[in-house]
Design brief:
Largest sheet: 5 strands, parallel
Strand order of the largest sheet: 4-3-5-6-7
Shape: globular
Distance between the termini: 54 Å
Structural class: alpha/beta
Helix content: 25-40%
Strand content: 15-25%
Order of helices and strands: EEHEHEHEHEHE
Length: about 170
Amino acid sequence: HAYVEASFISPPPSHLPHDIVSINYTYRGYGYPLGAMLTQLNYIHGIEGCVQTVGLHPGQSCLLVLPLSHVYSLMGSLLAPLSIGSTVIIVRNPTICNFWNAVSQYHPNVLTGVPCLYTRFLRSENSVVDDLGYVENAICGGSLMSMSLYAEIYRRWHLSLRQGYGLTECLPVV
């Protein structure tokens, strides 16, 4: 027979909103990692909060350069944009050269990064892109960006970055 009888097919697992779907590890200075148990509801609220806070909307494109092992990039650069139908541009080998090539080729509307990454972008010899006028949202997370770095980025690219804050235990955008 070219078919399978329904009695042999298991129903898909049901996931309740309070079921734990991931354990994300964080560090709080205790000398060992702490596992933050996140539920489906944590992710749903995290996605909704990220979309609303950042102002994401369908049709935008988000450049993903941060590792997905961090909850900040997983939520802010992948899950939230995909949940509303935005495009995610994944830079597979996130070197400075590859970053600028992707920016030049795809003109992303959303950039997410951490202070040290924005510093590297700023200090790089970039002859490909001088105008980032298509960037509607630029977010910094992971740690606090200094006011001097913020001012330098604004002077060079006229980007008004948003400083994100969040806890791994709650998902990253608060």
